[in-house]
Specification:
16% helix; globular; alpha+beta; 8-stranded parallel sheet
């Protein structure tokens, strides 16, 4: 086992990447001195031009009925095979995919991405469902027998490669199937590390985060080291493969997650056994598993499940190690991207910068694309969205490699979103909006992903099982009720229709972008955005060919006209795509006037090249400063004079060290977000930038300096404005996180002095319990809480002592699940079916749902049948939505007005 290092604080480690940075341009013409910065082209990683087809093998085509029951016999409760039930195996397999490669490739697919295909626990009785989806793995070395054999996979990969297509695997490192139970029973509630710390085999408490990223870990005892004693049925003691997975001490063993806070890293997903990814045995074991699939089967890349629920140190080891191994096997374009289910770029980008992974699924794009194409959002929303791409820019990655998508197997399909967002709209309009969404996805930066069935207009009433219809004839009653877009067909027949308008549209988009590669790899420069619904325009320009393409989309139901800036004045542009005049000419100032039909897109190509710059423009750095959204990232921005095509390379150093590239930006405004999380607070960092124009002239900025800030502390509990009594749980988090922090929680009574109530060094959530009863405070006394780490002080939470809580008139579970509860629509705080009932014994509000369909939902607590007073994550007023990933079946919502926290159980 080789040694690891959790933190390296030299600057070069902060910018080192898993692939080489682009080479400096030859002999730039720079008027500055020889110490000027090294001009770079904006990085284009190995994968920026793939067309992914994301497919669930069980739901694509049944190529062989011989494997339908996986060799487990005819009883669906054992085999998991029941083609009449949406939560069971329906019969699709790898042979079915092999038989339809013409269909898949016919829409321009270059890479097939398979949902997890390893051997699963066929049925988990607690979930009343089967492992058709692939996320309940028992054997990481074998293809699930319901889908075929390892040889079937090898045949499929070889056939795809012979056609010039790649095959990607969906993999899991976070958990296995639900095999481990607890002495307290199955699926026990989560117990935090502060309540019950881990203990080594001798009984000494320790924090596992202190060992993450190292090659050591304390010896453990299954009987005494965990808050619950793990229990494995005798018949399952050797069920998992490889053998090391059968050791119960290699799991967190803390109970079920609520998907928030500490337990989002440590808790079991609906009972699934959560691996201790801090443990070096687990890290090495997972690396070895996936190296084998690369070496033995020639897999071309991985999509990685539940990435945000695994500690950073795991990815910092796993990503570079697996990528290096793949490249040693001749896989120069091997590519990994993670599932980080979040729409905040400052967060999702951490996994490609701080955690050294190549890419992540672009969930923020999905939200923005739906808003624009389906919900009529202002075009300016897209301007703001793409402006945030600089979060992803560092020395070895950027937004151009992000896989973009419109819907998936968890959240639901784009067809479903469009139908629900536009009730009563004619089919022609729905198809036009669907097409518009795909046009945005194909013509903007990133690698487009088609979710199988979207090319046939599949819809469905929601996510999860409701978004997993079969392309072969279905026997599932719920699927037979679906109203597909662009066709009169139903799921009662096979739907491999290459003449479907959406299939044809996707094929055309793939052909256009293949013929004009700048539409995939060119710099994405914002050009124009309407304030309301209307035109959003951007250009794509290849740095080498200097050919500009202008893309203009219109989400209005009326034609719209705009004067769109370009790099070339008084030049002719030719129509590449869409319904518009074949030629258009820009004005002297470069403005190209374009009329875009309703719910449509047009693309124009500059005839000739962008005029060459005569001299490098002036460049100056703005004052670098810690980003408001992420205290561990320094925003470094450059002001560039001029309006031609430029690329700006940023460099950093600690005083006295060598300059190191931290990223190149090829679209204005020019900036990067430098990760300084591994540098000690108070460290000085110097920055400079060099601009490269399209004639290879360069100019270097003056140096600007900044200081790495103290970690930013943020209070978690108690929620602001709540009434408290007795024991009060006080929590805080630190950004950036560091396992060596010891955070002190403090209290002030009635405006008095601050007093420490406890110090906690157990990350990622720092906790103390304040015994207010011991203070004998009067009713309505004001109490404040804060957290302190060195000179860093958190926000302040103010609460009021009170034993009698004035309850609201009503409380509703308002969210995306309301229609499933029987409401007329979602997010309806006035709906009767969403109202909770007050339980006098527990002094909480309760809503019991007997059978909520499986899916991913968002919700909040809304008081008095309106939105005037509502509470979200952590009990925050007007707080962010709470995400519920539900496996299907009963669920109980509980709201406590003392804390304003709403949870599920």
């Amino acid at each position: 086992m080789k040694p690891r290092h959790a933190t390296v604080v030299v600057l070069t480690a902060l910018v080192a990447g898993s692939v080489a940075a682009p080479p400096a341009l030859a002999a730039p013409k720079n008027p500055a001195d020889s110490s000027s910065a090294s001009a770079q082209h904006s990085l284009r990683a190995a994968v920026t031009d793939e067309n992914f087809y994301f497919v669930m093998a069980d739901r694509f085509k049944n190529g062989s009925t011989a494997n339908d029951d996986g060799g487990l016999g005819p009883d669906p409760s054992v085999s998991g095979f029941d083609p009449t039930r949406k939560g069971y195996y329906n019969g699709g397999d790898l042979q079915g995919l092999l038989q339809e490669l013409d269909y898949i490739q016919g829409m321009g697919t270059t890479s097939i991405w398979l949902t997890p295909s390893f051997k699963n626990r066929a049925v988990q009785p607690e979930d009343n469902s089967a492992g058709y989806h692939g996320y309940w793995i028992t054997d990481f070395t074998q293809i699930d027998p319901h889908l075929g054999t390892n040889e079937d996979l090898r045949t499929l990969i070889d056939a795809a490669h012979a056609r010039g297509m790649k095959v990607y695997f969906d993999i899991i490192t976070n958990h296995t199937a639900d095999v481990i139970g607890y002495d307290a029973g199955e699926r026990a509630p989560y117990i935090s590390k502060d309540e019950e710390p881990y203990r080594d085999a001798d009984g000494t408490a320790f924090d596992d985060r202190d060992y993450a990223g190292t090659d050591t870990f304390p010896a453990l005892d299954a009987e005494t080291s965990f808050p619950y004693v793990p229990v494995v049925p005798e018949a399952d003691k050797n069920l998992k493969v490889p053998e090391w997975l059968n050791d119960p001490t290699l799991y967190h063993n803390r109970g079920d997650t609520t998907f928030a806070g500490e337990d989002s890293f440590y808790g079991d997903f609906f009972g699934l056994d959560d691996l201790s990814t801090e443990h070096p045995v687990v890290v090495d074991g997972m690396i070895d598993i996936y190296k084998t699939w690369i070496a033995d089967f020639g897999v071309d890349g991985f999509r990685i499940d539940t990435m945000k629920h695994v500690n950073d140190e795991f990815w910092q080891e796993f990503g570079p190690e697996v990528l290096s191994y793949a490249q040693e096997q001749g896989k120069d374009e091997f590519f990994m991207f993670g599932e980080v289910f979040d729409t905040t770029k400052s967060f999702t980008s951490q996994f490609t910068t701080r955690n050294r992974m190549q890419s992540v699924l672009d969930f923020p794009f999905q939200a923005a694309a739906r808003g624009y194409a389906s919900q009529g959002a202002p075009a300016s929303d897209l301007e703001r969205f793409f402006a945030g791409d600089d979060w992803y820019t560092d020395a070895d990655s950027n937004a151009y490699s992000l896989p973009t998508f419109l819907g998936n197997h968890d959240m639901g399909r784009i067809g479903s979103f469009i139908a629900s967002d536009n009730p009563g709209a004619a089919d022609d309009e729905l198809v036009s909006r669907d097409t518009l969404a795909h046009e945005l996805m194909y013509f903007s930066r990133g690698n487009p992903v088609i979710y199988y069935g979207d090319e046939q207009g599949f819809t469905g009433p929601g996510g999860d099982q409701d978004a997993r219809q079969t392309l072969f004839a279905s026997q599932v009653p719920e699927y037979l009720d679906d109203d597909l877009l662009g066709t009169d067909a139903t799921h009662a027949t096979d739907t491999f229709d290459a003449d479907h308008p959406l299939y044809q549209g996707i094929r055309t988009l793939a052909e256009i972008t293949a013929e004009h590669p700048a539409l995939r790899n060119g710099a994405h420069q914002h050009r124009y955005a309407s304030e309301g619904p209307g035109i959003y325009a951007f250009s794509r320009t290849d740095a080498k060919d200097q050919r500009e393409y202008v893309v203009a989309l219109n989400n209005s139901t009326e034609p719209k006209t705009a004067a769109i800036p370009t790099y070339a004045g008084k030049r002719t542009f030719g129509l590449v795509y869409g319904d518009a005049p074949k030629h258009a000419k820009s004005a002297a100032d470069g403005a190209l006037t374009v009329t875009v039909p309703a719910l449509s897109t047009v693309v124009y190509e500059l005839k000739g090249n962008v005029p060459k710059s005569k001299a490098a423009p002036a460049i100056g750095l703005q004052q670098p400063a810690p980003a408001a959204e992420d205290n561990g990232r320094m925003r470094v921005a450059a002001d560039v004079a001029g309006s031609s095509f430029y690329e700006v390379t940023f460099e950093a150093r600690t005083p006295g060290s060598a300059w190191t590239g931290i990223g190149t930006d090829d679209n204005a405004p020019y900036s990067v977000y430098h990760d300084t999380s591994a540098l000690p607070a108070g460290s000085a960092v110097e920055y400079r930038a060099v601009v490269l124009d399209n004639a290879r002239h360069t100019r270097t900025s003056a140096v600007a300096s900044a200081t790495v800030p103290q970690a930013r502390l943020t209070m978690g509990l108690p929620a602001e404005g709540t009434q408290v009594s007795g024991d009060v749980e006080v929590t805080a988090t630190a950004s950036p996180e560091n396992s060596e922090y010891a955070v002190t929680l403090e209290r002030s009574v009635a405006g008095g002095a601050w007093t420490a109530i406890g110090t906690d060094d157990s990350s990622p959530t720092y906790t103390a319990v304040d015994d207010l009863a011991a203070l004998d405070l009067a009713e309505s006394t004001q109490v404040r809480y804060r957290a302190v780490l060195g000179t860093s002080v958190s926000d302040i939470r103010t609460v009021t002592v009170g034993s009698v809580i004035e309850q609201p008139g009503t409380v509703a579970v308002a969210g995306s699940l309301d229609s499933e509860l029987g409401c007329g629509g979602d997010w309806d705080p006035a709906c009767d079916q969403a109202q909770m009932t007050f339980d006098d014994a527990s002094q909480t509000w309760i809503l019991e749902v007997a059978d909520l369909p499986a899916g991913t939902y968002e919700y909040k607590a809304a008081l008095n049948r309106g939105w005037t007073e509502n509470y979200g994550a952590g009990g925050g007023r007007d707080g962010s939505n709470i995400v519920l990933q539900h496996a299907g079946g009963p669920v109980t919502f509980v709201y406590d007005h003392r804390t304003h926290v709403i949870t599920t159980r």
